[in-house]
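Researcher: Can you fold this with pyridoxal-5'-phosphate in place?
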Amino acid sequence: MHQFPDAKAVVEALAPDEPVILTRPHAAARAAQFFTQKFPGKAMYAVKANPSPDLLRILWDNGVTHFDVASIAEVRLVHEVLPDAVLCFMHPIKTASAVREAYHEHGVRTFSLDTMEELEKIVAATGAAQDLNLLVRLRVSSEHSELSLAAKFGVDLVDAAELLQATRQHCDALGICFHVGSQAMTPFAYIQALEKVRAAIAEAAVTVDIVDVGGGFPSIYPGLEPPALEDYFKLIEHHFEALPISYSAQLWCEPGRALCAEYSSIVVRVEKRRGDELYINDGAYGALFDAAHVDWRFPVAALEDDLIQPLEEFSFYGPTCDDADYMKGPFMLPADIQAGDYFEIGMLGAYGAAMQTRFNGFGATLAATVTDEPMASLYRGDRRDTRTSNNVINLR
Ligand SMILES: *Cc1c(COP(=O)(O)O)cnc(C)c1O
């Protein structure tokens, strides 16, 4: 892949008709090192956030050894790219053949479940294997997160004891996992969930070997500036250690977004301007799914030297013929931006580059590597300290 200093150099060299996905390997490497060095347990990467083989290798090279996979295709992909990686099949609804293939052909030993039926399926498909790590997924609140994962999966607390006791009979290590929702804006989300874990363990009276706090660790976007990740880690560790679990119990997490959001951005071109609406060459069916469907505000930066006017609010239309291909924003760009100008949309490494389709004949993108910094970073140490804000609770 071609390497450039930054997005401007890409536009100067290529004057691209198509959008260009820019990747920043150094940003993903830094995020991986941060989690492997600072999270007080094991950090596994949730592959669905961005399954790019290049990214998987960068994370592996920087200390990430465990991968949260959710489909048999993800199992095959990671096993092929990283044959020595430990795979954890964390989707609570799997087909019997997926469990069978994962266990017998790819060495998967860790599975999650939230029903008795899934437990029976796993036991049957692995031939009642004696070496399973089985994690019961608990339903927890998503109220502190930007994207909910609460409706779909997880056993309710009232039914958890029975499922934990039954699961204990069929595994080598028993775990409890949950997901607080994506982009959790306060560590309190995890504390609340860990209190539910405590109640479930007390009710079931089983020995728990693994507590997996899932994903949800945030990145930075306009209007969404979270507290420092160290605060999340400190509070999770404190509340994990106070649980009624064995001394040797392990703490796991499954970050997706936080490990890869800074990895990619995209360069787009304005094809038409209509007032404060810009028609651009990527959109809802490309890398900007969340911008269209949940009004996510990604950061933007103009790339032309002669754009001099103050920033104004714009919304975007994507290239397809569909009215839903609309991104409300607001996105802040120079007031004199016009057709033919390029700009960069940042922080698209998670749930951005991974979401592209070819709907309506659009979606082809070029790719380049750049060496400059992402538009925002949780890992550079130069952020405003938000610990004085009122959405953080202090330990003491
Ligand atoms: C999506 C998902 C993750 C990653 O979530 P992020 O919010 O991206 O950190 C982790 N675990 C499971 C089970 C998931 O479904």
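Model: Folded with pyridoxal-5'-phosphate in place. Residues 46, 48-49, 68, 90, 179, 182, 214-217, 254-258, 350 surround pyridoxal-5'-phosphate (CB under 6 Å).
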